[in-house]
Design brief:
- The protein is an alpha+beta fold and 723 residues long.
- It folds into five domains: 103 residues, no CATH class; 108 residues; 120 residues, no CATH class; 65 residues; 188 residues, sav2460 like domains (Lipoxygenase-1), CATH 2.60.60.
- Helix 1 crosses helix 4 and helix 19 packs parallel to helix 21.
């Protein structure tokens, strides 16, 4: 258990909790540990190296084994990445020549000859019927022997592991950071929060838990130790019930409620009763989730607890036996009547809902007087709206400035994306500009002046992490819409998957698009080579795990966009397989090495979305000839079987265009707002850090920062979003 908790800290913070052990002469073992870390793209900070050097050799070795296991998994090096073609990317054959070789071998096999001849007579051949197609013809060890060792390069990734505090302190700090986050967490972070909450329920708590899903996870732990619950809506209680049943606390997916213990039932019913007793109008919230409340009532048996009558009212409303007119229905009636003034007056009591309705209100307003009332109400309500909603609305109106034929893109919480033509009339420019200025002023008011700011320029184009669901779990992953430079001559994608119960075939492909998003060419199992690229070969089953690669020489690619994608051809979904992840590596032009080299991995993201086609990111060549990545984290529905790049190029092109042409608010935008006349800003040049405390914002933490510095990196960018 201690190892898993230590691993959790390393993954979230890139800090190793202060190693324990007897004092000794561990310097030699520490240097060996550092050398081993280098092979997977990590290194020890000077402070951590010094700490380990003062421990016994046995303590250092024990720490090294645990840490190497964790960091290897972070970059995907915990599994074996075999390639179908043993010397990939060298000697990848022409697709048709390769297929003919497979046919020739099949005809020479007594077991397969007749079947293949019969298929050939009918003019249709199933590649899977060929014994040598889609299955590794060599072992992982044989592949390693056939490949050259990696030639070290100054461009190889180096991620520093820093010395942390004691394990208990690190866990407490991480718990407070996750529980008190001002933005929703992704599924993996929510699971980690659950682990931390169970351990930290009796310790220090955040001053506030603004995100409802986080509150549900914390309430589950608090219920378990008998602490007071944090409840102010009936929906908070429903989310807690979902948590107790290992269900979806976001309420997006139905939860199958378990039979609950008497203490749990009493806790939920008492919570419902207290919420409604304090404010009977909260009964109206039941309408948004009537069916889950009805199912929950069947588990809680409220009739057995007459001392909590208000709890029984909740389920009466859900069953339609008691009337409680919902707030949303009252707003909807006013909007249907085009009563903008009345709708604004009502929405003032729900600032978040007002903000989400601003675009519609400005569009249906009859005259300037009504539009002025809408803007005035927004300005008045802004201080009561969460920072992430203010920023989301600000981004929305920024993109409403541009009159284009770019389609609208919608992305749900599970990453499923779809596009539709934008038929909305424009928002009047003067009203939009006034609103944007007011929102900027509100965000500026909430941001604390940083004093002395040390800034890594690479972070400026990172999209604001307004939700943890806008990024996949993994290593080196940026929020959806972020833009990052691609520095390297060879770009290599990889996908790894391991099936759980049935034969599963994932296909790594890359769609190459012109500047107008029309198709140029593609690389796939049916197109093993294209201009500038090679595919490692089709693997069609993964009982022991399987990998596919695409190698691209960027100076030979003539397209404007490169869109890697993972298609489910057959078998289990991304959420059903035992494991699946995508990533990319960067290498120099002459840099040799095996198909998968962990220290060249720039990004590794889990594939766990709802859809049959995964679109992790898109690479775009700019007018200056340089390549940049824009992060997508999207999934398309696809079809039930046989998803192929050749068939989905139109839908992929539409989604890519919609997101590429959408402009996100970035860290650079936020830095502009937080900077004051008193701010001293330095750009981090990778060499020297100030001796005094600073606020550092960057992708990774430099060594040597003053201990009182405030440090914001990729792992805690969400801390920049004001509450």
């Amino acid at each position: 258990m201690a190892h898993s908790l230590e691993s959790l800290v390393i993954r979230h913070t890139h800090r190793l909790p202060s190693p324990k052990g007897s004092a000794g002469e561990g310097a030699t073992a520490a240097r060996q540990f550092d050398a081993a870390l280098t092979t997977v793209g990590f290194k020890l900070s000077a402070e951590l190296m010094a700490r380990l050097s003062g421990l016994s050799e046995a303590a250092v070795v024990h720490t090294a084994k645990r840490t190497l296991r964790t960091v290897s998994e972070m970059v995907g090096d915990h599994v074996r990445h075999n390639s179908y073609f043993i010397d990939f990317p060298a000697n990848v054959p022409d697709t048709e020549d390769f297929w003919m070789r497979c046919v020739t071998k099949a005809l020479g096999d007594d077991k397969s000859r007749e079947s293949v001849l019969t298929q050939l007579r009918h003019g249709v051949l199933d590649l899977l019927s060929l014994p040598t197609y889609g299955r590794y013809q060599h072992t992982y060890e044989e592949m390693l022997t056939a490949q050259d060792e990696l030639i070290a390069s100054a461009g190889d990734r180096v991620t520093v592991l820093h010395l942390g505090r004691g394990l208990d302190d690190e866990l407490t700090d991480l718990y407070l950071a996750l529980a008190g986050s001002t933005t929703p967490l992704g599924e993996d972070h929510l699971r980690d929060l659950k682990t931390l909450a169970e351990r930290c329920a009796l310790g220090p708590q955040p001053t506030s838990i603004p995100v409802r899903e986080n509150r549900a996870v914390v309430n589950e732990a608090r219920l378990g130790v008998g602490s007071d619950l944090l409840l102010d809506t009936v929906t908070d209680v429903l989310r807690l019930a979902c948590a107790l049943s290992d269900g979806d606390v976001t309420l997006q997916e139905p939860t199958r409620f378990r039979a609950l213990s008497r203490p749990a039932r009493r806790g939920l019913l008492a919570g419902l009763d207290a919420v409604v007793a304090a404010n009977p109008a909260k009964l109206a919230d039941v309408h948004a989730h009537r069916e889950p409340f009805k199912r929950l009532g069947e588990r809680l048996h409220p009739h057995e607890y007459p001392r909590w009558p208000h709890a029984a009212d909740v389920f009466a409303v859900a069953r339609g036996e008691k009337e409680a007119r919902s707030f949303d229905s009252r707003v909807e009636q006013l909007l249907d009547e085009f009563d903008v003034t009345g709708a604004v007056r009502l929405l003032k009591s729900a600032p978040g809902k007002l903000f989400r309705a601003l675009d519609l209100l400005l569009r249906i307003a009859a005259d300037q007087e009504e539009r002025d009332a809408v803007v005035a109400a927004a300005v008045e309500a802004a201080p009561e709206v969460s920072g992430r909603v203010v920023l989301s609305v600000r981004e929305h109106f920024h993109n409403r400035e541009r009159e284009t034929d770019t389609p609208r893109i919608f992305v749900n919480r599970r990453g499923r994306a779809w596009v539709t033509p934008d038929g909305r009339p424009p928002v009047p420019a003067a009203d939009r500009d006034r609103l944007i200025a007011a929102l900027d002023a509100e965000i500026r008011r909430r941001l604390q002046a940083p004093g002395r700011l040390l800034l890594d320029p690479d972070v400026l184009d990172v999209a604001l992490p307004l939700s943890g669901r806008a990024a996949a779990a993994g290593f080196g992953v940026l929020p959806r819409g972020s833009v990052s430079a691609v520095d390297g001559e060879l770009l290599r994608f990889f996908v790894y998957w391991k099936e759980s119960r049935e034969r599963t075939d994932y296909d790594l492909s890359a769609l190459l698009l012109h500047s107008d998003y029309s198709t140029d060419s593609w690389l796939s199992y049916a197109a093993l080579t294209a201009v500038g690229g090679e595919h490692s070969g089709d693997v069609t089953e993964a009982p022991d795990g399987a990998a596919e690669f695409i190698n691209l020489s960027l100076d030979r690619v003539r397209s404007t966009f490169i869109v890697p994608q993972v298609n489910i051809y057959a078998g289990e979904s991304f959420e059903e397989v035992e494991e699946s992840f995508f990533g990319f590596m960067l290498r120099e032009g002459e840099q040799k090495g095996r198909p998968f080299e962990p220290r060249t991995v720039r990004m590794k993201s889990d594939l766990r979305g709802a859809g049959r086609v995964a679109l992790p990111l898109v690479f775009q060549r700019g007018d200056d000839g340089r390549w940049r990545a824009k992060w997508l984290h999207l999934y398309l529905k696809g079809i039930s079987v046989a998803n192929r790049v050749e068939e989905n190029q139109a839908s992929v092109s539409k989604v890519v265009r919609a997101l590429v042409e959408r402009e996100q608010l970035t860290i650079g935008y936020l830095i502009d707002l937080m900077s004051r006349d008193t701010t001293v800003m330095d750009l981090w040049d990778g060499e020297q850090v100030p001796d005094e405390p600073v606020m550092y914002i960057g992708l990774e933490r430099p060594e040597g920062l003053h201990q009182d510095s405030r440090i914001i990196t990729l792992e805690n960018l969400r801390d920049l979003i004001p509450g």
